[in-house]
Amino acid sequence: MSNRGWAAAVAVFFMTAGALAPASAQDKLPPLRTGVDGTFAPHAFPKLGGGIQGFNVDLFTEIAKRMHRDITIDSVSFSTLIPGMEAGRYDFIAAPTTVTKERAEKMLFTAGYIWTAYQFGIKKGSAPIKGWQDLKGKAVAVNKGTPYETLSKKMAQEIGFEVQAYDTQPDASQAVLSGRAYATLGGNTTIVYAASKNPMFVADLELKDTRAHWAAPVPLSNPKLRAQLQDAIDCMKKDGSLVKLSEKWFGRVPPPDALERTITPGYGVPGMPHYDPTPHELHCG
Questions:
Q1: Long-range pairs for 237-240 at CB < 8 Å and ≥24 separation?
Q2: Domain map (residue ranges) of the chain
Q3: CB 216 within 8 A of CB 112
Q4: Per-residue b or e along 173-210, where b marks 16 or more CB atoms closer than 10 Å to that residue's CB
């Protein structure tokens, strides 16, 4: 993810209503401190009148509410979030963070709350893409410097199609709408969101073999917070509120195998470093 044009930190303080009996000032826990990339629509992006909005903003505001905590969400560059957590400025990271083996060795991840995957977007009326071979002789628009550009260029050498690199994903999508490119390859949530906002843009083939978990990382030293965050996420999966949040921001009903619906055993992402398979009972108040 990039943060072009929005490098300034914007602190957004969300006062969440606690469901517990009033506590003294001495007993009250401090606000959770976290951050997002504030230019990554629809996960976090500026709203009119100031502040930020988006799927991840709503998600972690609700999670804090269920934990009976206030929360402070900074809008910063994604590249500063992990160092910020390591330096103690953030308790966890609310921005969509792809779970990889390398990252999971250095941080504790909750279970995934949504899949991230590569997906094509095409212009309405174009023939759907069934596989990479369908792009032979055509042009694919991508966001410059992203994994989508890397994969597209690799496949272009094998199959034979043009890759056009643009400064932003919206620019790549516009290239499709204007006819300069047949398709764009980007992140699934970004492609689906764009399609929900423009009837001439269609979310097409998702590359299932590129699927990965988006989850919330916390420091290795804080397994208790990891468990508390995941319990709240799992309760949102159980009562359907995470599915409703996904529908609100992505304009589509999550499929049956969506992570918005799937409660995985233990704490963390199965198969990744620092995954804790210990069974636990879920208590949703």
A1: 237/113, 237/261, 237/262, 237/263, 238/263, 238/282, 238/284, 239/284
A2: 10-113+216-250, 116-211
A3: no
A4: bbbbbeeebbbbbbbbbbbbbbbeeeeebbbbbbeeeb
Enter the DSSP assignment of 221.
T
| 3-class DSSP assignment, residue 75 | strand
10-113+216-250 maps to CATH 3.40.190.10? yes
Look up residue 117 and give its two tokens: 């995957």
Residue 268: enclosing H or E segment and its boundaries? none
Pair 210, 117: CB distance under 8 Å? yes
27: confidence class by pLDDT, cuts 50, 70, 90: low
Altogether, the residues listed in the chain come to a count of 285
Tokens 């689906």 correspond to: 192
Q: Mean pLDDT for the chain?
A: 90
Per CATH, the number for 116-211 is 3.40.190.10
Task: List all residues 6 or more positions away from 271 whose beta carbon is below 8 Å from its beta carbon.
Answer: none
Give the confidence band of 147 by pLDDT, cuts at 50, 70, 90.
confident
